[in-house]
Design brief:
single chain, about 250 residues, alpha/beta, 7-stranded parallel β-sheet, 8 helices, 7 strands, NAD(P)-bd_dom_sf, KR_dom, oxidoreductase, Sc_DH/Rdtase_CS, NADP
Length: about 250
């Protein structure tokens, strides 16, 4: 194992975020977790004393973002990478969308992501670190009633590309994790029936029922390896967790 590094992971209490955290900890890295579920974050810290720290709260709160970056520096002395994993999905056609709900989704999926990147950049420049932005296939393919979510992920892709151009010492990569067995997939199956096109909705249900969803640990392990040892030539790109560019990270 090479030198231990320090990472921030958002949406770290469940799903892909929790899987990334566990993979990083197994690699002997140090991690600052953030999410709203304090009890789940506390359990990770208790299980990994001296290796894990956390800040519980709403990531759209600028004070929380400052606390998260400060926790990395105060607890572990540096910051080598950030996995921006948190996100919100609402299933509603754009013509029926309430603008306040749309703005709230963008606060979570876009504005807070950029705010965290901004807060992290001074430290990432020092370590020539990495930003991983968790994207989605919905950023490049339209699904009925996913306009807010899909466009927010497209915005995330663009932010990643622009930071890659503007910050040559920082590797910035958007990554699509595929269809993963998470709470978000459960929400699609429970709430999407009345808003999505039947064929699209049935496809999500069928993939779940046939056991076709990925386990969070599958993309999670790849994301953890990538943020710890990023390929500089991927900066500014959108990659799929199982794409050829990431073959060495799946070994």
């Amino acid at each position: 194992m090479s030198v231990s590094k320090v990472f921030i992971v958002t949406g770290a209490s469940k799903g892909i975020g929790a899987a990334v955290v566990q993979s990083l900890l197994k690699q002997s890295h140090k991690v600052v977790l953030t999410a709203r579920s304090q009890d789940l974050l506390e359990s990770v810290k208790t299980a990994h004393p001296g290796q894990a720290e956390y800040v519980a709260g709403d990531i759209t709160d600028s004070g929380i973002i400052t606390q998260v970056v400060d926790a990395a520096i105060k607890s572990f002395g540096r910051l080598d990478g950030v996995v921006i994993n948190h996100g919100l999905l609402e299933s509603k056609k754009l013509g029926d969308t309430v603008m306040e709900q749309f703005k709230r989704l963008y606060d979570v999926n876009v504005h807070s992501c950029l705010a965290l990147a901004q807060a992290s950049l001074p430290e990432l420049r020092k370590t020539k670190g990495c930003l991983i932005w968790i994207s989605s296939g919905a950023a490049t393919k339209a699904y009925t009633a996913w306009g807010a979510y899909g466009s927010s992920k497209a915005a995330v892709n663009s932010l990643s590309m622009h930071i890659a151009v503007e910050e040559p010492d920082v590797t910035s990569i958007a990554l699509s994790p595929g269809r993963v067995d998470t709470d978000m997939q459960a929400l699609i199956r429970s709430a999407g029936k009345d808003s999505m096109v039947k064929e699209e909705y049935d496809d999500f249900v069928n993939v779940f029922e046939s056991g076709g969803l990925l386990k969070p640990e599958q993309p999670g392990a790849v994301i953890a390896k990538l943020v710890a040892d990023p390929a500089k030539e991927l900066s500014g790109k959108l990659v799929k967790w199982d794409g050829p560019e990431l073959a060495k990270y799946r070994e």
